[in-house]
Amino acid sequence: MSVEVRVEPGRLLAMVRARGSIAHRRMSARTQRVADIARQEAPGRMGQYIDWKVTEGPRGLQGVIVCDHHAVRFVLDGTRPHIIRPRRAKALRFETGGRVVFAKRVRHPGTRANPFLQRALRMGR
């Protein structure tokens, strides 16, 4: 008795890529879990700008997590020491130690990198 099985790559690929398939559901669940962790790890209100989706990549399904906050690059990479100057006013105004301070420029010491998206990916595995 012989059995012959033919696998048609096009149909197999379409079955895996189908929106309701097990592969798609599992990829969605894992991507959502990592995005939820990233929202918790993100500083301040940056977590509100995190979104996720499952797309078709060159090697099949892939989960994509996006943060649309304008300062996300500075948080992920950190910043070097730099000088802050006013743009539309003659002086900067800020509070420190309960006092209001005015200055023409401020020497910012820089910030350490906070790779919260990488941490979320490691924690979500």
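(ticket continues) Second input and output from the same batch:
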Amino acid sequence: MFLNYFALGVLIFVFLVLFYGIIAIHDIPYNMAKKRNHPHADAIHTAGWISLFTLHAIWPFLWIWATLYREDRGWGMQNPIATPDDVPGMDALTQRVAELEHKLAAAQPVADKNTLEH
């Protein structure tokens, strides 16, 4: 009789550990988002609970979503668009483009005469 109760106790213990483990695993993206001060931490937490009912299909995307944001650099797009003054060698490129445009403008009337004659 003791072994029956012991087996029942082990089954209940295993069930509770698995239940808690599944919940703890699904809270990993939320905990990561909370640690990083993610602006969408609440949405990630809600989506984590929803993923329990969608057979965990969206859980990897929650992990990615939680790791995309960092408080020190935001979404990783902090570098502003470079202005022409910031690009090294931009003066030489601008001068080369001007020369090519000048050559193209000088050669274009000749090309137009040739197309009209044929």
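Agent notes: DSSP finds five helices and no strands in the chain. The mean pLDDT is 85. Closing as not reproducible unless the customer responds.
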